[in-house]
Amino acid sequence: MKRDKYIEIAIASRNKGKIREIKSILSGKNIKRLTYLDFKSWPEIEESGSSYEENALKKAKIVANFTKKPTLAEDSGLEIDYLGGDPGVKSARYAGENSTDLENIKKVLNLMKNCPFEGRTARFRCVAVLYLPNGKFFMSQGKCEGKIDYSPHGESGFGYDPIFVPEGHSYTMAQIGIEEKNKISHRAKALKKIWRIVNIDIS
Ligand code: ITT
After folding, report:
1. In the structure, what pLDDT confidence band is assigned to residue 199 with cuts at 50, 70 and 90?
2. Does 157 reside within a domain?
3. Which of 76, 176, 182 to mutate to test the pocket of ligand 1 (most atoms within 8 A of CB)?
4. Residue minimizing CA distance to atom 8 of ligand 1
């Protein structure tokens, strides 16, 4: 990618927490970060895939075909060892279709009420895709290891952040704040890798 050029990239997400983090990770890169708010309409996307890869590629491709811009999408989730890797790709809808973050958190804590501290290991995983209008795409992934807390703490972030304590930290993702989160998160790692892979003119 030519650094002396200003490029427009569409962010293929309807999740405000995710968009805030992606915008912040992409700041200072000569990129105009477009979202669904910059367009009159936006495609509805059904996340029907059984893997992060499938879902991320589907979102990026549909939105790139619609916006005609290089488009960044990601699919992510929380994998809890005690729950056999759940909620995983179902993270956004774990407590049911249209469930809130709080409902999803309550479901996790309820299912884990008998789980001891050592067994509370988990990780956030993210697969990011940058899809170009010519059909070429780049994919990368990132993960962030940690443990599930016994109750929610903190106001920052979104999703399961109030119950996820990243490895090496004593506070939850929702307590450490966006700046610190963007240094260690699955999303930041995946997006930084994409930028290392993409070494072409995407305008
Ligand atoms: P888009 O598809 O529109 O981007 P979404 O929320 O449906 O939004 P996903 O299908 O990728 O996105 O679901 C990701 C879910 O995983 C998200 O809704 C959270 O519940 C959880 N999650 C992912 N990353 C997270 C993070 O950094 N902090 C907390 N929870 C996270």
Report:
1. low
2. yes
3. 76
4. 15
